[in-house]
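Model it.
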Amino acid sequence: MIDQGLMTRKSVAAIIIEAGEHTLGKTLGPLSIMALGIGCIIGAGIFVLTGTAAAHYAGPGIMLSFVVGGIACAFVGLCYAELAALLPVSGSTYTYTYATLGEIFAWIIGWDLILEYAMGASTVAVGWSGYIVSLLHNFGINIPPQYAAAPWTEFKLPDGSTGAGIVNLPAAFIVLMLTAMLIAGTKESARLNNIMVGIKLFVVLAFIVFGVGYVTPANWHPFVPDNTGTFGQFGWTGIMRGAAVVFFAFIGFDAVSTDMPIGILGSLLICTILYVAVAGVLTGLVPYTELGVPDPIAKAVDVIGLTWFSVLIKIGALSGLTTVILVLLYGQSRIFFQIAKDGLLPKMFSDVHPSLGTPSKSQLLIGIIVAVVAALTPIDILGEMVSIGTLFAFVLVCGAVVYLRKSDAEVARPFRTPGVPAVPILGIAFSVLLMVFLPWQTWLRLFVWLMIGLAVYFAYGRSHSVLLNGAAPR
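Modeled.
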């Protein structure tokens, strides 16, 4: 049984007081926060996961998958907005869980978020690699395919033969480059992010407006392909599994929820509409069976046959994917910072560089690990490892809103989730439903990761806990 000490939670009042102390500086303004949110939400889903989910699970019905994901995200987003306004400190879902269910559960969700953010950044880096290889090919520069693919990943050569990957060097390169930028300073990173977000949104709209004229409607039939006889492979179960996979694309709002609620709700509706529109054009240009590649948009614009347009779209895709990696690396360092400040990880993770003002040690370690994973792991395995962790975190967020309305009803809330408890319950229901449609291997990986996390907690975290041992916060 879990003893009472493990159930100890921080009071909401104490966490609000901590918001003004012992935290990283607020270096980003409202526009940069919104740009960070858009930069993460619009990116991986459109440029990477749409093709994978369409090819393996949903077919053209991937458009419906995005609708389901968007609805679920709206319920969860409303809950995130209340918690982000009520508990405005670094740590995201980790902090919210600490205030409700206690330290042991906060550690579990924090450990889960480490997996989510690291695997998410690695997934997008692999997609980035696919697009940069395709773009350079337009200019006559050909990166040997075995050095742009994970080990044992098969690829087709121009002569029709197949080969196997050795290491994905472009994926590792982009992670390390962005890590260096984040170590140098968040303001500088945010300025580049804002520019790339503007380019990306322009190119996404151009793909929709221009590409729709080249759509072959026959590619949309059947809209919901018949189930293959295997649960989750096409048919309506495939639509739901597709929704579970592409839900990864909606994690942008929780990556910036520690800074400002507007980063959560500001663009969810627009992002969902754009997802559906891009998915429609994509599956209309290319038969869904051919979209199981890291760079599906590049494949689609090459079908149009206009080199200038192809180059433009690929540049936009690279901008979009770069912003996603940037946000995920940024968000993970902030989660590490808060967990270490609570004593559950070594102090080095909460150290801030005296002149740069960034958690340089933890950022460097995170960047190296993510780069290695991106270089050596296929994209389909990476993508599956992200979604279940995201959904698990969302279940706890929605539950936290209901709990705090009762346990800390007197605390003023700058933003209140409407329709409590109905909205949080719907958020939980949608999240659990999507988790059910993920394959059992995904559940197994999550279970193993959480067991490792519990071992780390009982071996180190519990004995160093600021809360359980009565030490003054660092």
